[in-house]
Amino acid sequence: MLVFSCYCYSSEFNTVYGQTPNAAGAGLVWGMQTLLPQQAGLTVGSVIYRYTVTKETDDYMLVHVQNEDLQGPGYIFRETDDWSYRPGSTVNKLVQVGDIPLERWGQGSIEVEGFGTVSDATVIYNYQYEPCFDPQSNPACPGYIDPFVVEVIDGTEYVKDPLEDELIQGELERKAEDDEDEEEEEDRQRMEKIEKLGGLEALLGGINSLTLSAEAQARHAELMAMNYIPTTYLSVLDGRVYKEEVEIPDATLPSNSQGKRVGLAQQLLHEEMVQSQYKN
How far is Cα 133 from Cα 39, in angstroms, rounded to an integer? Predict the structure, then answer.
């Protein structure tokens, strides 16, 4: 379990001073996101480290205690100890770094260059931050502004409804327009598909045929999947057989021009009614 230890802070809103647990407790490489408190305005002022070197006196060896810079190439902190041609021993150091912001502290590590080993390493970061660095982080902070209060008149707070905000209203209207455009586009695509399939009326004429071609059957199945054919077109009436009782002495019927006109008018009316179903 990770615990942050603070050795001083005088009151709720004064500067908080603290130090991390041993960053190198689990190895010579460590992350900083779980090591330092993620507080706005936090800075690291100094680094304390300790380790023991084991090596041959005549060997070349450098030890780098370092942190990568998250906002640029290289390191935000790097302290190098030269152990070349010296016997192994233990080092303790306090290095001032000048209040570097939290956002720049990247991965930390102890790197060995040359011959030798490092053991019993301890790396501790001293930090500080202002609890009210961002006044909006706590309603009790000085300078906190209630985002819902428009103004105070004669001691009365007038609260703003977020749904009345111009930006929010504009976004809601834009979304409504997008939804409407999307529905129109879907309707347009459906109509194009129907026209491509040969027209609704032509297909309806082939539904009841007992000799549907493979192409007509495929078109019919596709239209049924689109839910564009009313169920009444597929209903079967409970009819009966009516025997023919009228006898025509002359097998040749005269042309009926009036009947043709009525039939054409009914056909046009039918087409208009069918098309109106898809405009609503």
Answer: 9
